């Protein structure tokens, strides 16, 4: 995460202080904070329990192989419990004169003051944080002159800081629902006949990059395919997610227009 001292033990307290877990009484889950989190209903648990028992029986002491329930950010009434509603309630907004929320507003660009030796953001004492999602966040900096210089010149944007990394090196966790028979390829985990390969102590060390899982299998107790499924058939879906993609992509400006 950029800092060698940012390990799980040091960040654990931040996690527990942020939430209240409605269904799970565990040491790493919060118990008395405003952000409510739960797990899938018993409807899903009836499908998950046999898989959990199987995993615990065959891999009861393997830290690098895990199976966990799927969390959902809803309250006890199954209403969405977002960070916005929890940490920015209406009473807080009315009591903070220095907090301003502009609804239905488009941020066009960041204006810099180049009159001093070091660039600073006009209107902010310390910093500006852009949180527009992976695809939309690169747009405001590039419209403001921060980004690949050749690309900015192409759209008539004056370069303030040449930074090729803006909008580059994007990775996506590709997921695909598994509902049909596929070609089986033997791996270091499964043999050619489908049995789990023997492993040694070095294979269980989760601090080694080579032991980080390649895929995540999310069990969905309904059809994960677009379109309605037959109501007379029982369906569950294995949603396979690629955790360590090799390919990268980029986002660039189509026009020098903040509305596009």
Automatic annotation (TrEMBL):
InterPro entries in alphabetical order: FAD/NAD-bd_sf, GMC_OxRdtase, GMC_OxRdtase_N
Molecular function per GO: flavin adenine dinucleotide binding; oxidoreductase activity, acting on CH-OH group of donors
Residue ranges of every copy of the Glucose-methanol-choline oxidoreductase N-terminal domain listed in the record: 2-170
Pfam families according to UniProt: GMC_oxred_N
PANTHER family: GLUCOSE-METHANOL-CHOLINE GMC OXIDOREDUCTASE (PTHR11552), GLUCOSE-METHANOL-CHOLINE OXIDOREDUCTASE N-TERMINAL DOMAIN-CONTAINING PROTEIN (PTHR11552:SF219)
Family designation: Belongs to the GMC oxidoreductase family.
Protein name in UniProt: GMC oxidoreductase
Organism: Sphaerobolus stellatus (strain SS14)
